[in-house]
Amino acid sequence: MSETTSTNEEKKLPFSGRRAIPPNNSNDEENEVPEMEAFGLIPRGFNPRDYLRVEDIYMFKEPHEINKQEHHTDKYYNPKLIVRRGQPFQIQIYFNRPYKPETDQFWLEYLMGRYPQQNKGTYIPILVGNVLKPGQWGAKIIHRENNSIRLSVMSSATCIIGKFRLYVAVLTPFGILRTRRNSATDTYILFNPWCQLDAVYLDDEKEREEYVLNDVGVVFHGNVEDVKSRSWSYGQFEENILDACLFLMDKAELELSGRGNPIKICRVASAVINSRDDNGVIAGSWNNTYDYGVAPSAWTGSVDILLEYYSSKQPVRYGQCWVFAGVFNTFLRCLGIPARLITNYSSAHDNNANLRLDFFLDDEGKVDTKLTKDSVWNYHCWNEAWMTRPDLPVGFGGWQVVDGTPQETSDGMYRCGPASVQAIKHGHVCFPFDAPFVYAEVNGDIFYIKMEKNGTQVIERIDTTHIGQLIVTKEVGGDGMVDITEQYKFREGSDEERLALETAVMYGVKKQSIQDTTYQPQTDVEMDFQAQKAVLGNDFKVTITFRNKSRNSYTATTYLLGSIVFYTGVTKSEFKKHSFSAKLEPSSSRSFDIVIKSREYMDDLLEQASFHFFVTARINETGKILAVQKATVLEIPALRIKTKGELVAGKEMSVIVEFTNPLKQTLENVTLRLEGPGVLRTIQKQFGKIPMNSTLTWEVKFTPMRPGLRKLIASLSCDALRHVYGELNVQIQKP
After folding, report:
1. What's the gap between Cα 274 and its chain centre?
2. Buried b / exposed e across 571-587, counting CB within 10 Å, b at 16+?
3. Could you provide one GO biological process annotation from this protein's UniProt record (predicted)?
4. E-strand spans in 494-553?
5. How far, in Å, CA of 437 to CA of 425, rounded?
6. What pTM, to 2 d.p., does this model score?
7. What is the pLDDT of residue 520?
8. How many CB atoms lie within 10 A of CB 593?
9. 221 is catalytic
10. Cis, bond preceding 318 (omega within 30 deg of 0)
């Protein structure tokens, strides 16, 4: 090597004194691999053509061929070979002459990254043997014919996930001859939930079809009394999505050698899904202004977001919890980690993880909005990923909570998880990662505290059942909802629940004792609050009911405060204040109706049409205070979708999307989006105006390529109205 090239080398790689080679954390970079690696001086008469030479390698990589069929990767819209680890796949090698095992020696080499190393799992030489050992790298010949041999290749059940480069090396007396770099033989290796030796093994075929292979899901939103659902296109098999997901791990600078471990992958992904502190995929926005971006409610799936990020390398605007969770689910399923999207209704976001949310009342019993800092989210979405946890004691594997929504920092970055659901249920919050935070989200208590004039705090009421009332996910094999609350917590008030709480407190979840404040609950009068279900733009009524269980007559001074809130429970504006005095006869119930007029709320209404009502009542005779709070959501009208013409693969068909404006105002700058995973890439269209009561119709013509049951998903978005969705199942016939 001449002087000049060696100095260039030194310039190119500023090694630190700490490591011999730079960090190897890009799946995309490559190293030069010599086609002829000489053992020493090569004699003059040496001609590589005299030796066994590889003419071609056939990968069986078409969707209908054996590899993609047996490895459940036939749905990926990707021309290269995609296999799952720990399971054999086949390749065929064509030589220039018949292979002679007695004298010829060849082997396969799989390489990844810029600095392949055998001990890091990024350089894998595979000799041809007679047997394949389960879950270990190996190859054996299963068929020989003329100049070709067919190999069965087994990958390790713990190997790195990503894209490997394949070379075939042949031994000659003077050196090693290798095949030329050929990207057509690149091989993607993914997690394998079908393989018992894989850390993500899932033993139920129906669950694997749902949690790995289903590319459409359901997001549950609304609130606990009024659960709403919408479809979300995960699109994990769409073109370039696999490369985009591998790029996320490069972006997060995860060492290649760590990419066989689902715990590490989930942890770095939960940070890179949000843009806080690492310029990750999605920028969150919760303030109802979405300049220079797409409103979170307008997205219909993950594909557009991931592809935009993959090409621009800049955060995509904007997301809220279900968008982070939807994209995270795509990432996990795409790599082969079983995953599902979870919704927790009445989710506590308490800023100091003390299992307690404080709502302060002034001496009249009204809520003091300046002092009250904690908020209850109407709902919050996160993900669960399925894996073993060899880093924890036995019994804490299975579903793990991972959350890509930026809420609190964990080890200095906005990320959350993986936290074992089983550990959360039993209060074992000492185990990594972030279990105390998730425990507080599903288990907090609400304290209503009256501030006396002299500064003392009097606890008026403790509500132990409001937080984490309902935790749900989509059912396996259908669009229905399944209640999984008891996977996160024991029944309220049971002995097991108390024990789990004591365990959590022992492991450092802060639970303030009640001893430091005075608390005498009000027992002889009960108060309840109900809101009528109502459609956006209409009047509706709310009802306050008192039950006087005592033998005394009371008068209750009652305050109702109605606020328009973000779905995170944070108030935007107070639109209704109402107070009245209620006479309560002994041993009787009495109800009071209050009408909420549409003109009172329409001007300030936010996109999820969420209201929050606080009702407090002071019993004048005893000075005791009753308090209750409730979130309610208005019905938002849906988009109607229908099809026209024959639904046959390869034939043009039409989809018609219709929407009638229900508001007493004209809608302006309306954006419609329509997508159908596997049938139709997202298209969007702008409409200038929709006058009140008029109907918009949009017809889209396209040609579906594949037969099967598919779902069309549409959304409408404008400043005055968001969270408008429609969907339709379509059965595309074979031609």
Report:
1. 11
2. ebeebbebeeebebeee
3. blood coagulation, fibrin clot formation
4. 518-519, 525-531, 540-548
5. 13
6. 0.90
7. 66
8. 10
9. no
10. yes
Residue 384 is predicted with a pLDDT of 98
- By CB atoms closer than 10 A (0-12, 13-18, 19+), residue 203 is exposed
Q: Is the Cα torsion angle 109, 115, 118, 121 positive or negative in sign? A: negative
Which residue in 243, 403, 612, 718 is the catalytic one?
403
Beta bridge partners of 413: 410
Q: Residue 445 and residue 588: Cα distance in Å, rounded?
A: 30
669 is in an annotated binding site: no
Nearest to 525 by CA among 440, 598, 622: 622
- 578: annotated active-site residue: no
SS3 414: strand
**Does 37 belong to an annotated binding site?**
no
3-state secondary structure (DSSP) of residue 376: strand
* Structural domains for the chain: 36-190 (2.60.40.10), 216-507 (3.90.260.10), 525-633 (2.60.40.10), 640-732 (2.60.40.10)
Contacts of 256 (CB under 8 A, 6+ apart): 24, 25, 26, 27, 112, 113, 120, 121, 122, 160, 162
Query: What are 529's two structure tokens?
Result: 């609050």
Mean pLDDT value across residues 396-410:
89
Kindly provide the b/e burial profile for residues 659-695, where b requires at least 16 CB atoms within 10 angstroms of the residue's own CB.
bebbbeeebeebebbbbbbbbbebeeeebeebeeeee
Element (H, E) at 481: strand 481-483
Distance CA 578, CA 84 (A): 62
- Say if CB 323 and CB 296 are below 8 A apart: yes
Residue 492 is labelled as binding a ligand? yes
DSSP string, 234-255: --TTSTTHHHHHHHHHHHTT--
Are 168 and 106 contacting, i.e. CB atoms less than 8 angstroms apart?
yes
Catalytic residue from among 72, 221, 349, 380: 380
- Encode pLDDT of 479-517 as tens digits: 999 999 999 999 988 888 888 888 888 887 666 655 445
Check whether 574 is labelled as a binding-site residue. no
Confidence check: pLDDT of 230 > 90: yes
Report pLDDT digits (tens) over 148-166: 999 999 999 999 999 999 9
Amino acid identity of residue 250, one-letter, is D
Positions of E strands within 61-186: 81-84, 89-95, 106-111, 123-129, 138-145, 148-154, 162-172, 175-178
CB 303 within 8 A of CB 294: no
Q: Is 466 designated active site?
A: no
Please pick, among 159, 321, 334, 416, the residue that the annotation labels catalytic: 321
